[in-house]
Amino acid sequence: MSASTINEKKIILVIEPIGMGGELLLKAIRSLGLHTVIATTEKVYHSMLLNFKELMDDTIFVDFSVREKAIETLINESRKKGVSGVVVSWEFLTDIAAEVAHGLNLCGPDATLSKARRNKHFMYRILADAHCPLPHLQAVITNKDDINQLHLEDLTFPLVVKPAENAASFGVSVINTIEDLPQAYTDASQWSHEFPHDIPFSNEILIQEYIPGQEFSVEGISISGKYFPWGVTMKFTTQGKARAETGHIFPAPISDVLRDDILAVAGKAVIALGITNGISHTEIKLDHNGKPRIIESCSRPAGDYIPRLVEISTDENPLAIYAKHAVGNLHADFTPAHAKRYSAVQFIRPETEGIFKSLKLPSKLDHANIIESRVTAQLGSHVKPGSTNMERLGWAILVSNSEQSILHAMDELSKTTKVDIE
Ligand SMILES: Nc1ncnc2c1ncn2[C@@H]1O[C@H](COP(=O)(O)OP(=O)(O)OP(=O)(O)O)[C@@H](O)[C@H]1O
Ligand SMILES: [Mg+2]
């Protein structure tokens, strides 16, 4: 075996390919014919990764909850196996991925800022230093008693309360009065460790200005310090106290001026956070003046099937580009493909609490084609509206040629989908 190939195939370390993002990443890597080494735990391998065994060639079992030891093990084992690229899709492991790539002298984002991309308080400080437009950080508290020390006059409502290190909207609240703050703190601080690896979270809870406008994300790749975005995704979330994602459209149906404004702000954030190489997902909302402010940015692919939307729209799979770049196979003059059509994903959420009996998505729409759909909740399970991305019952991906028709199709799908909860 040569240093970086098995039977001429390059070897790529894939750090914990769980969740929707992980599945898509594994499939993209398989399409490139790379040999995969999966960094996971034995328990995850035999449960959450059970259905993807044919996409995984080799494994390294590692305890991610002991950070330094995990990094050391991954560097040593990867060296022995001849790994020539590192990719990650699980948000909680992006910092370990950056350290491992750095330790192996492989392509990746700046490892010295790996924690800044994982901790929203640290991220805030880096982005503020770089003069990126942000929600104003009103306070950071680590204890319920800290609420009594807050100066009411410093708080402007509505405001956002959220944990520094969780994800998938866990513990994120939008509140309108000071009376709601103790409960929002309790909600934000209820998880002390990540699941399923038991990675400890910082106890910092952020209190932030609420940015009221439309939400977007930007999917891009950085190559040697230069940012190449595929475009802007428009995001739809639930309203009210908690925000969970209900759907996305790519490319966002917005003016070119606004798109370029959003891309510029995302690029500034990505580079400030040290994402000099590799894929990134940046979340942005518009403020009162219609100007973009950064909610967060991280060195990982988007979740929620967004990479699939980019692929449907541009005919280029961003995850394949990420993996190609990681192993040094991306052409030097790469630029992202332009969108040729509109695509959307819509998540079906329960509107009432009860036993989930059935979900019937329409087979046809007037305004778009449904090209993929899945029922994700267990039939017979107990479901409820909830406040995170976990309560979803299923999803559908749509494609259409115009921005008007993709918007109409999202409405049409909502109106014609039948959910039975008893
Ligand atoms: N300062 C803010 N102003 C307005 N809305 C916000 C703000 N912070 C968060 N939100 C809303 O809450 C959602 C989740 O917040 P955030 O992205 O910070 O948490 P997360 O746990 O990383 O969520 P996810 O993984 O779903 O992106 C955002 O997508 C946005 O809709
Ligand atoms: Mg987010």
Structure notes:
There is one protein chain. This protein has eleven helices and 20 strands. It is α+β, with helices and mostly antiparallel strands and 422 residues long. It has four domains: 5-106, Rossmann fold (3-Layer(aba) Sandwich); 136-209, 2-Layer Sandwich (Dna Ligase, domain 1); 212-338, ATP-grasp fold, B domain (D-amino Acid Aminotransferase, Chain A, domain 1, 2-Layer Sandwich); 341-422, D-amino Acid Aminotransferase, Chain A, domain 1 (2-Layer Sandwich), CATH 3.30.470.20. The strands form four sheets. Strands 14-13-10-11-12-15-19-17 form an eight-stranded antiparallel sheet, with helices on both faces. Strands 1, 2, 3, 4 and 5 form a five-stranded mixed sheet that branches. The radius of gyration is 21 Å and the shape is globular. It starts with a strand and ends with a strand. The model has no long low-confidence stretch (mean pLDDT 95). It binds adenosine-5'-triphosphate and magnesium ion. Magnesium ion (MG) is lined by residues 283, 295-296.
